[in-house]
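Board work, copied verbatim: DUF475 domain-containing protein
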Amino acid sequence: MTNNSSQKSTLGYFRWAFIVTFLGLILGAALGWQTTGTIGGMATVFFVCTVLAVLEISLSFDNAIVNANKLKEMTPAWQHRFLTWGIVIAVFGMRIVFPLAIVAIAANIGPWEALVLAAREPAEYARIMNDAHLPIAAFGGTFLMMVGLNYFFNHEKDVHWIAGLEKLMARSATIKGIEIAFVLALVLIFSSFLGEEEASTFVHCAIYGLLTFLAVEVIGGLLDASQQTMSAAAKGGLGAFIYLEVLDASFSFDGVIGAFALTQNLFVIAIGLGIGAMYVRSMTIMLVEKGTLAEYRYLEHGAFYAILILSVIMYVQTMFHIPEVITGLGGAALIGISLWSSIRYNKKEQAAESAQAHKELHA
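↓ predict structure ↓
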């Protein structure tokens, strides 16, 4: 990361996000004009792109904080790779290629046919995507739940926000596999509320989500164990890179599915969510370079609680719909409360230090 990060203004971090927003909204307006040929249609697509970008940003506050938490452990070379190639994969891979892949698999057609379907029959494309929501929610919800629990079930964790609960989880971390047992129990509970066929799909996809998380952890562990034989540029980087990409995929599941409630046009969705993804990248860089996570001690806690709530919401959505605005506002509220708690803690610490200095001065 750059050495002059302390002199860089907050707005400076969002320069590229602003540029992409400007270009994306112009492209959205042009797409609206091309598809409808009216000023009203152009304005509608422009508005939908804006709303999708805001939706993505609101859903991704916790994503940026978790990214920053992982990035601070990576070498500068791998940080740069994630923030360049990683964002390309996030924007184009998860917002365009991934939905096409889901439709191609679900409809048993080729990728090109899926793209043609998205362009010519958006309603059918949206129907197939919505039908695929249950397995996606089971997979993504399980992966995110393991990410959240893995943060709290850590016997070395000594900073606690909700002290009673977090101390209990930290102590329980000495019981091997407790978080896996917790997730599997929750999967069985939720599957019991579904029909036989849906329950089978839910359990299978949840297990795949769990195995994906464990596989990423194993890869990271193997890379860490073999650091002595790896080049400096690769140390601690590839495993974390893969982890962050799968994490971003899990976060984007809900946003991509929810976007179809606003529009059935894949290209409008890609523009709106792509704009939002650029703000996630900018937030991630700012958090890493400014050391914000170290400055606000409970910010990470709020993000990981938000992840746990999102994972449960994804499970619940297999039974009935929960508006994405509730998901986004809920996560943002938790992060806001954790930020407020951090500021209060910092003020108390500063007051205590001032009192101690005053006492020593007059001793």
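Residues 10-361 form one domain.
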